[in-house]
Design brief:
The structure is a single chain. This protein has 4 helices and no strands. It starts with a helix and ends with a helix. It has about 230 residues and is mostly helical.
């Protein structure tokens, strides 16, 4: 059972790290976002969802820490939980700053578009936007690759939990069979002991009966052959 708990703790920690990386990637996307406001709104919505998921997993880790039997394990998990919580708060601060900076940049860009024209400026902004989009796409792909690797680890951990559960059931069934066999052996031992005692008693009774018979025969012979004695 302790092994199963350790696996669940590792899975929870891996998911917390995965959400943290995804939040950082989204914050980076917000920093590099050049508009429009609808794109920024969508990015903010994704960050909010990931932060809610991260908060729930941190709460799960805190609950697992409280359920630990050893005080040292409990304190270690609580310290880990507190580090993740501080990291989440740091991400929220970075998110707010990136969001504010992006909004200002989009507003300024829209003002520039209204005040300034020209094909050269438009081409330059388009080229810059494409470059930023490619960079953002590369970073996102790298983080998603890390996320997929961590998902595979979570899947492997779940398989380990299932294997441990199966092994535990097998051990319990074997233990029950062993107990049943032990009871049967003890019962057989009692029966053998009982039969041995019965055999000894039967032999003693036969011996006494034979002795009584011989004594009777001797007495009868004595009375018939030697009546004067």
């Amino acid at each position: 059972m302790a092994a199963s708990q350790d696996v669940h703790v590792r899975i929870c920690s891996q998911e917390i790290i995965k959400y943290d990386l995804e939040i950082k990637a989204l914050i980076q996307d917000i920093r590099e976002c050049t508009g429009p406001h609808s794109e920024l709104t969508e990015l903010n919505s994704n960050v909010k969802d990931k932060i809610n998921q991260l908060r729930m997993r941190i709460q799960d880790l805190e609950q697992m820490a409280k359920e630990q039997d050893k005080e040292s394990d409990k304190l270690a998990l609580l310290n880990e939980m507190e580090r993740h919580r501080k990291q989440m708060l740091s991400n929220q601060t970075a998110w707010r700053k990136a969001n504010l900076s992006c909004k200002l940049a989009i507003d300024n860009s829209e003002k520039d578009d209204l005040l300034q024209g020209g094909d050269s400026s438009a081409r330059q902004r388009k080229t810059t936007k494409q470059s930023l989009a490619q960079t953002s796409s590369a970073i996102t792909e790298s983080l998603m690759s890390i996320s997929r690797m961590m998902s595979q680890q979570v899947h492997q951990s779940e398989e380990t939990v299932a294997t441990l559960a199966t092994s535990s059931r097998t051990v319990l069934e074997t233990n029950e069979e062993f107990k049943a066999m032990t009871g049967t052996i003890q019962l057989g031992r009692k029966l053998i002991t009982k039969y041995n005692r019965r055999e000894f008693t039967d032999k003693l009774l036969i011996f006494l009966a034979l002795a009584l018979f011989l004594a009777t025969v001797v007495y009868i012979l004595k009375k018939r052959l030697f009546p004067f004695l």
